[in-house]
């Protein structure tokens, strides 16, 4: 299993380097473009950056879990891609907050920046899960699974997770005029939709089906 992962990481080295340059360009857009008012702590941009950073962190955690417990090269390649891409994007979100002079954590409720989503926070019991995020029980099941069972559960959870990320990115689009933030949201929508389509094909080849879609 170690060899396929090593091959997958090597294949991703050049694309990942290109992605890093693109995303750093997005992050630096604030300095290269016209000056905007710095986002406030209660802005959609700050909420999106914080919430999406947390959302991405769970995706990376799930990708590491399946990397350790699965053997299929396509799934390992997908997991490596998610680790590289979403870790890089998460770093950019944190960089934005630092650039804007805002704390990386906030006492504001999750998703408070998303119109019409306050009901998901009100009355919640335990940690508030954003769109598509796995529960702790689901994460533990993924850690305990092996082989094809791990691959199927990972694909099902990650499809739902990506759909949640798409919902969040779509919600941000009409709320911000900042080029770097809108560009990142569009990149997340396009990239994660492509991965959702790919994961659905991988599930079908295993005789399995996605969980109920969040986008339908």
Structural class: mainly alpha
Q: What sequence of helices (H) and strands (E) makes up the elements?
A: HHHHHHH
CATH architecture: Up-down Bundle
Overall average pLDDT = 85
Helix content: 55-70%
> How many β-strands, per DSSP?
0
Largest sheet report: none
Strand percentage lies at: under 5%
Residue runs with pLDDT of under 50 for 5 or more positions: 1-18, 24-35, 121-125
Descriptive overview:
This protein has helices spanning 2-27, 29-32, 44-69, 73-99, 136-144, 147-172, 179-205. The protein has one domain (2-114, 131-205): Ferritin, CATH 1.20.1260.10. It is built from seven helices and no strands. Helix content is 67%, strand content 0%. Residues 1-18, 24-35 and 121-125 have low confidence and may be disordered. With 216 residues, it is mainly α. The longest helix has 27 residues, at 73-99.
Short description:
With 216 residues, the chain is mainly α.
Keywords, please?
mainly alpha, single chain, elongated, Ferritin, 216 residues, 7 helices
Question: Which SSEs are present, and which pair or pack?
Answer:
Layout: H1 2-27, H2 29-32, H3 44-69, H4 73-99, H5 136-144, H6 147-172, H7 179-205
Helix pairs in contact: 1-4, 1-7, 3-4, 3-5, 3-6, 5-6, 6-7
